[in-house]
Amino acid sequence: MIMSGLRTVGRSVKDPRGFVVVSLMVVLLVVSSGLMLGSKRGEASAWPVNVRGYVEDSANNKIQGANVTVEMVNTASVVTATRWFDSTPSSGLYTVSFEGAYWDPGYTIRVTARYGSDTGQSSATATIDAIQWVNVTIPIVIPEFGGLLGLSMPFVTFGMIAMFVVGYRSRRREPLAPP
Fold first, then answer.
1. How far is CA 160 from the centre of its chain?
2. Number of helices (H) and strands (E), helices first, in the chain?
3. CB–CB of 97/45 below 8 Å?
4. CA of 12: how far to CAs of 3, 23, 120, in Å?
5. Which of 120, 118, 65, 109 is nearest to 89 (CA)?
6. How far apart are CA 107 and CA 59, in angstroms?
7. pLDDT of 142
8. Residues 71, 49: contact at Cβ < 8 Å?
9. 100 — pLDDT class (breaks 50, 70, 90)
10. How many CB atoms lie within 10 A of CB 123?
């Protein structure tokens, strides 16, 4: 049984058709693996990138309801891919994705946030990371969250309540007039 198997192997090695088939397979594997390597540009943008960040005011408070525009800019060929985020939630977080065909490491990520008539902009250089963080500060202070007026309001309110309570108690302690 073993001898007949060896004879079959010996005959297949001597057959020129088998040699041609094996040679063609080796050539195809070498060529296809060379094509898969590709250029560095093809490797770099093989995956999507997720751009995230927070929209804040000057006092580092998160802004709800800001409209965000994120651009992936290739300054060498002036190619721009744009994504929008309609309205930030109460956390102030936005997130957009760019498919692999629209970015490469070294591109500029430019983020513009609008809140009412106020605008803030920030940028960063794209790296090979799957998530890129770009925070934006809009140069305003939302009064109910911070700033001079926002900080003073609780103290003023507390002071008015304290004055009311002290005034009410002092009126109750006045002696009653004798009958």
1. 45
2. 4, 8
3. no
4. 14, 14, 74
5. 65
6. 30
7. 65
8. no
9. confident
10. 13
pLDDT at 109 over 90: yes
Query: Which amino acid, one-letter code, is at 130?
Result: A
Q: Which residues contact 101 (CB under 8 A, 6 or more apart)?
A: 45
- Averaged pLDDT for residues 50-72: 93
The tokens for 138 are: 């809009």
CA atoms within 13 A on the CB side of 105: 12
For residue 110, the tally of other CB atoms under 10 A from its CB is 17
Could you tell me which residues come within 8 angstroms of residue 133 by beta carbon, excluding any fewer than 6 positions away?
52, 53, 124
The SS3 of residue 11 is helix
How many Å apart are CA 144 and CA 137, to the nearest integer? 17
Q: Taking the CB of residue 98, how many other CB atoms lie within 10 A of it?
A: 22
Place of tokens 């890129």: 132
pTM summary value = 0.55
Task: Please give the Cα distance from 179 to 175 (Å, whole number).
Answer: 12
Rounded to an integer, the average pLDDT of 156-169 is 65
Residue 70, pLDDT > 90, answer yes
Beta bridge partners of 112: 69, 121
Query: CA dist 1 to 8, 12, 13, 15, 93, Å?
Result: 11, 17, 19, 22, 73
Residues in the chain: 179
Strand partners, 122: 111
